[in-house]
Amino acid sequence: MEIDKKIIIKLVQALEDLKKSIKDINIESRDTNVEEEIDLSDKIIIKSPIVGTAYLAPEPGGKKFVEIGKKIKKGDTVMIIEAMKTMNHVPSTSDGIVKEICVDDGQPVEFDQKIIVLE
Fold it and tell me: What is the pTM of this model?
C-alpha cells in the first residue's frame, strides 16, 4: 500500500490548524469510570486473573453462573474469561453470597480488575 504524501501533508496541516484553534479553550475531561464508594471492609473481592472478555454464562442465552444473592462455594465457577480463543473458567476464591457483579456479559476485562464482590 502506497501512501500519498499529499494526503499526509494535508492531514498534518489540518491537525496544526485544529491545535491553533483550540489553543485558548479550556477542555475539561470527565472520568466516566467513577466507581461508587462501597464499604469493602467485610467484603471479599474476586479479581480477574487474566486479560480477556468476560462471559457470565457458559453459552449465549444460557443460565448465568452466578446472580446477585446467590450463595456460592470456594472453587465454583463465577464466569468465563476468553483470552486468545481459550475459555478460562474463573473460580470463586472463597465461600460467600454474591453482592455485586462488576462486569457485563461480553465486556473486556483487565488483569486484577474487580469482577465479583462477595459477602
Answer: 0.63
